[in-house]
Amino acid sequence: MTSEFVVHDAAGYEQLMGRWSKKLAPLFIEFVGVENGEKVLDVGCGTGSLTFALARAADVGEVAAVDYSPVFVEEAIRRNTDPRVTIRQADACALPFEDGTFDRALALLVLHFVPEAGRAVAEMRRVVRPGGVVAAAVWDHLGGMPGMRMMIDTVAVLSEAGRQLRARYCFQPMMQPGEMKRTFAEHGLVDINQVQLIIRMNYQNFEDYWKPIAAGEGPLGKYVTTLDAAERPRTDAAVRDAYEAGHPDGPRSFANVAWACRGVVP
C-alpha cells in the first residue's frame, strides 16, 4: 500500500481536511504556476481540491488526476463536470503515464502519506517533460499544525500508544525543514525553491473539529478507533477540554503551515 491516509467516507474527509485543502490549493497554484494550454498531473487528487482549482486557474489543455483511494476517485469523478479533467485510480510510486507526458506534476498534501515519498518524486519527475515543473506541498505536522498537535499532545499524555502516535505523526516523510528540497535535488531537479504557505483552519465548535476524527477519518481518526470502551470517553473529554481551554465551547481558529517545494526537470 502506498498511502497511509485512512479514508472511509468522502463527506467525513471534507470536514476533516478537504475544506482546508480548498483554501490551500490557490496559494499552492500561485507558487508553482500554471499556463494556458498546459497538461498538468495532480498526484493524490483526493476529492479534487487541487484538480478543480487548476482547471479554474488557467485555460489548461488537460488535467489528469490520480489517487490511490477508490473512495476519493469515485467522489472526484462524481464531482467532475469539466471535459478537460480525467480522474483514475493509480499508485503515486508507479504512475501509469509515459515519460515526459506533462508540463507539470503536482502533489498537494500527499507525499507525507507515501512511505516511499522519494520514489513518488522520481515518478513525478519521469512523467514531466524537460523544462517542466514538479511541485509538492505537505503540512508541517511538528511545528505548523497547532490544532492537530492539540489532540496529539493530549493523547500522548494519556497513554503510551498516544506517545507512539505523536512520534509517527510529527515525523512523517518530507515534513522537516529542507527535507523536500533535498529530495528534489537527489532526484535531479534543478532551480529548486521551498517556501511556507499559511492558511487558517476555522472551526464553529468542538463538534465541528472532532466529528470526523471521532468517526475514524485520517491518521488521528484511525488512532481513535483503536481505543477501548474505557479509553474512548476519557480521550473525548480530554481533547474537548484542550479545545475549550477553559472557555465555553464555540469558534476556534488555528494558523497552519505547509511546506511547498518546486523544481524544474533539466
State the main characteristics.
266 residues
Structural write-up:
- The chain has ten helices and seven strands.
- Helix 3 (70-79) links the parallel strand 2 (62-67) and strand 3 (85-89).
- 42% of the residues lie in helices and 23% in strands.
- The mean pLDDT is 95.
- The chain is an alpha/beta fold and 266 residues long.
Main β-sheet, spatial strand arrangement: 3-2-1-4-5-7-6
Structural class of the secondary structure composition? Answer: alpha/beta
Give the % helix.
Answer: 40-55%
Q: Count the DSSP helices.
A: 10
| Computed Rg | 19 Å
> What is the string of helix and strand elements?
HEHEHEEHEHHHEHHHE
Outline type? globular
The largest β sheet comes out as: 7 strands, mixed
* Weakly predicted, low-confidence segments: none
Distance between the termini: 31 Å
Number of strands: 7
Estimate the strand proportion. 15-25%
Q: If you average the pLDDT, what whole number results?
A: 95
Summarize, please.
The protein is 42% helix and 23% strand. It is built from ten helices and seven strands.
